[in-house]
Automatic annotation (TrEMBL):
Organism, as annotated: Methanoculleus sediminis
InterPro entries, per database record: DUF3795
Pfam families: DUF3795
Protein name as annotated: DUF3795 domain-containing protein
Lineage of the organism: Archaea, Methanobacteriati, Methanobacteriota, Stenosarchaea group, Methanomicrobia
Length: 122
């Protein structure tokens, strides 16, 4: 919804979260219930912020800034790519970007290292 790819998130991979689309109340990670971006996208009945005429809006500001500063991830650019490519192709490209060239494992986008072999992301 916001440009984060849930499928790469450690909390999703560990089963603590089922992704922002899930309404399952049994999932352990609860922060998404308070997310203003998620709520806004759902209230507007959109798939993601790229479908919104107000994008990029102030509601996204602090998340965009935090991801750029802390993780070097540009969520607004992710949204632009998602909008241009469509969800299937975007998902394929992101998966490829975060596949470890050494072992084929999943690169943790937050630690910027391979979760399987520990290789740092290029
Ligand atoms: S761009 Fe802003 S206003 Fe539009 S759906 Fe996303 S959070 Fe809501
Ligand atoms: Zn690896």
């Amino acid at each position: 919804m916001c440009g984060v790819n849930c499928a790469l998130a450690p909390c999703f991979l560990s089963g603590r979260c089922r992704g922002c689309r899930s309404e399952d109340p049994r999932q352990k990670r609860t922060s998404k219930w308070k997310c203003r971006i998620r709520r806004c996208v759902l209230e507007r009945q959109l798939n993601h912020c790229g479908e919104c005429p107000e994008f990029p809006c102030p509601t996204r500001g602090s998340l965009d800034k935090r991801y750029r500063g802390r993780y070097r991830i540009d969520l607004a650019e992710n949204i632009r790519r998602l909008t241009a490519l469509g969800p299937e192709e975007w998902g394929r490209q992101v998966q490829a970007d975060y596949t470890c060239p050494s072992c084929g494992g999943c690169i943790d986008p937050y630690r910027r290292t391979c979760s399987a072999c520990g290789r740092p992301m290029d």
